Fold:
Amino acid sequence: MVNGTRLGVGVLLAALFGAPAFLPPFYVYLIALILVTGLLATSLNLVLGFGGLYQFHHAVFYGIGAYTLAIGITKLHWPAWVAFLAGPAAAALAGLLIGLVCVRLERLYFGMLQLSLGSFVWIVALRWYPVTGGDNGLHGIPLPAGLKPLGGAYLFILTTVVASLLVLWAVVRSPFGLTLQAIRDNPQRCQVVGIQVRAHQLAAMVLAALFAGVAGVLYVTLERSVFPNMLSWVLSLEILVMCLLGGWFTFPGPLLGAALVVTLRTFAGRYTEYWTLILGVLLILLIFFLPEGILGTLRARHAQKAPEPAPQPAPAGDVHG
Amino acid sequence: MAILGQLLVGLSRAMILFIVAAGLSLVLGVLRVPNVFHGSLYMIGAFVAWTVAEAMGGSPARLWVALAAAPIVTAAVGLAVERTLLCRLYHREHLMLILFTFGVMLVLNDLVKLSWGPTYRSLVPPEGLQGAVSVLGVALPRYNLVLLGAGPLVAGGLWLLVHRTRIGKIARAAATDREMVAVLGIDVGRVFAVAFGVGCFLAGLGGALVAPTTSITLGMDHTLLIESFLIVIIGGLGNLWGALVGSLLFGVAHSVGLLIWPQFAIAFPYAITAGVLLVRPQGLLRSVW
Amino acid sequence: MHMRRLAVLVILGMVAVTMSRAGAGPSPRLDRNIKVGVVDTYSGPPAVFGNDALNGFRLALEEINREGVLGARIEFVTRDEKFSPEIGLSMARELVLQERVDLLVGTINSATALAISAFAREQRVPFIVWISKSEQITGAKGHRYVFSTSENTAMAGKALAHALSRRGYARFWIGAEDYEYGHAVTNSFWRFMKRAKPEVTLLGQTWWRTGEPDLVPYLTQILQARPDAAFFGTGGAGMANLLRTMKVIGFAERVPSAIHTAIDVTVLRPLGTAAPEGVWGTTDYLFYYPESPDNREFVRRFQAAYRDPPGFPAFHGYITAHFIAEAYRRARSLDRERFIEALEGLRIRTPVGEVEMRACDHQAVLPLFFGRTRRDPQFPFLMAGNLVTIPGREAMPTCEDIQRARAQGR
Structure:
């Protein structure tokens, strides 16, 4: 079983690295977009699925990463490598600041505070015309020559995403990651046995923001543009749906969700104006029939012979914690 | 004097915010559901009011009929969703409830587009309510007097409902301890349905009231939804008077923002929310329920 | 010997035929149809504009394809950008890489237009912007591959400054919606107003956010300051709200007000009688003015096909199709670089008279119509009266202005 999974991942990686050689350019672009969105969704899932935090406005960190790179290159004339590192760093810093304020609260209040602080950042991006380009955004951002052709950008994105996913996977499997999941399942008990709940949650938020920033930087590599929409709450909810769709208690779930949503959006968008209607119906069906997502349900079915207790999220109700 | 007049003008906006936010707060307090499609119902309320007013042509009563019909329609839509789907999800966690209502919002917004199309609509108020009157040196639209009257009426009605009726008392009890109420042999589901219906009624009423003052269009729910969520949060979840305080605070923050830093006036309500939550993480008022 | 002479003669003959084709003789025939990729908003409120533009474009293509372009037809595919630049950019990429379109056309969203413009430059694909009014498109951010068949904020501001500078107003107030368009059109207006009449003063400014439902407090503030005239920068749903509020509190009777597109049919029609009389405005297309045979014919055929009279987007879509067809006829090939050279400086006949695609900035030289809203018993909505035509040349920034803006933009 484990060998089968490893073989599958190996074949998939080989196919991904070889893709530019045999796929038409548009599909190469589409795969790159899926990888970027997948990394963004996976980073959200670190705090959402594994951390149990209602991070309602995760797109903010994606936008901060992208805007830092874009502003660094076009307005501050930083060398490209500095700007590329500054993007994720700025996102992580924002994650730390917002996290410091938010982890004092729980569940719905956490989510709402995170949403209002995030909207604040969004407004700055939307209003600070001289720096952010306001509602028009910034376009045609000059990048190093090697990243200009689609093939070059694609390989850079693929390598970075694979490396980031390996790190995130290691984090989830590490003692830190396991503690985080324990906190999600029973914060009170963790508190009692002496685990620093807030510190763990804060660290998870910073890590998640860091990798959302990486995804933001990669988006600029691909599209060479930034828009205030990248920090909108609609995008945040869309990536939440991706996590849910793929399976938010599994590691590869968000990647699968991102692949499905991006592909559907690209192709359904061609034939219908009612894309949001499709997304809405899909979401409602998911909640009723696949609450643990595609991979979560598959895994549960697989584990039926030797039942393993599925992670039980805390029941609704206790808003005031 | 002029500043007082300005505040009076801004107050009518606060009344709309209060009516919509009170509905949201009611649902949140009793059912513990943050209803994301509340904004869609507000928009549907405005469109239905327009349709009803158009159908009645030049009749002088058209505004009043529209104001009565729109909230009934939205309450029916809300109840249909609650009774068929939402009621099966109450045992699930918050995130699922939020995402479910988000899904319904996406569906409803596209259904509005299917039914009314993308063009802007305008509802002209009846003769007697057109134009403006001079109050404290400013021109106050006559129709705003209706809004200023509607706010206290709704607040009074809600107070009566919550404190003077059996169902209101049960709702308050259910909000505090759902299991206890169920143990007493009371049908909690019915209480939830009533609370949800009233919440949706208020969303539609807000939309119908706002219809004559603005462009009725897709996307009109967007800002309002976020604002009423923030109002409910700073007021204290489920606290109707918190919703009132929050709405007034929002109105003042906006006017003050306009005076000091117009370019960033839009950011003031968000700053206020963040500030309130930093100092009082559970909102300004505790739940009175 | 004989054979060789014959061969020379045949070759010479072939050369002569080829030369004559390249010259003024019969046109070469294209071996495939011309494919245009349209990216625009077809969902949400701005879809009204996107659909209107597409209808105008379709109507023109029917005429063009009847006789054909170099023996081929012009076909098009559309993509809905949902008023979202990242979706628009992704769709443009799909159209160029996958559908292999010859050129791109669109969109109402200026953020999308600027994003696609940067992409078009990188891919060396011509891109014609037909609704967005951002002056950056052919101004500071202009380049070889981008064109505009729409009037823009620079032209609107200059035209209104031109018209208002003759009316004896000295103390102005500026009110606008706080977004790119609001800033651009008011900046342009004030810059050209100062240039036309240096003694004017600005009493104050009022900004409200996009989607602000209640404008009464803002307008009250302006009324209390008692300026000689007010200039407003807003559009779409914001414009409808502004006009409605002006009517309710009787603003325009007390402070003369000017707004670009306030006299436009797309603005006034949905408002019905809720729009105020006496507001000054400009637009680059009206279905009832000028009353030329060309315009009447265009309106007649448009109404026969789509019932409603054409709005300004339909006019833009219509002339865009004719610019494309004429440029290909002149380029005599599907080569993109030759198409661009043919489009530069091209003049075509349109419903509002001859329009030139200015070579220096790729901006269509469109006349603007200046007038004042008034009731017309024949229509259920307000129309424009006291109409004057401001020639395109007078409304456009000069080529030097453009060069300066582009040098600063770099």
